[in-house]
Amino acid sequence: DPAFLFAIRSFFPMLMLLKLLRRFESFHLLVSAFVVALEALPVILYTLLLIALAFTGCIYILEPRDNVQSMSDALWLVIITMSTVGYGDISPVSERGKLLTSILVIISSLYMAIPIGIVGSAFSKVWEDRDRLLLLQQMRDRITRAGYTREDLARMFDELDNDGDCQLNFDEFKEMLPLMHIEMPTEVAFRVFETFDDDGEGTIDFHEFLLGMYPAQRFFVARRKAVRRA
What we know:
single chain; mainly alpha
């Protein structure tokens, strides 16, 4: 189908740009910032939805039916007003509708600054900690490219455990970095080590190392514990 092929071809420029992501290691910082901000965004988006639906109902009631013919038209007017885009295809014509829309403009201008501020603050914090985050990503990439399995990492962990206490101190942890062909200043290496050291005892076990290397596993570990308790 020529139309289908044309539609697929229209996405080629975007796909070509996506191939360049491998050259932008700092892109992971943007993703990390959104992950941090994601914890607060659901409540903010929920409140934003309540405001939008409340004003949608009010505008639908106050505006003449020949101007706002359906709830979808009212919702479109509210969304365009809250985003401060203002296409002008639908606009209030009644005095009460104009007053309500003016109130919506003020409320949305103040409210929309909250999620923007949260994302900006999260990115600022992530950027300040960019050295540690980028080096953690390098370690994950080295492990993935080398094809290390959980058992391989466990054997490497045991070989570096010079005192045989099943834990690595900072000096033993530093010996792991050359094995992964990773170079980092001692100060940054210590910050990475502190990421793994959840209990703050100055040593890390293999379980702490895996959770620090792959934080997403924390969710599955917590979920398994909850299932066991139930």
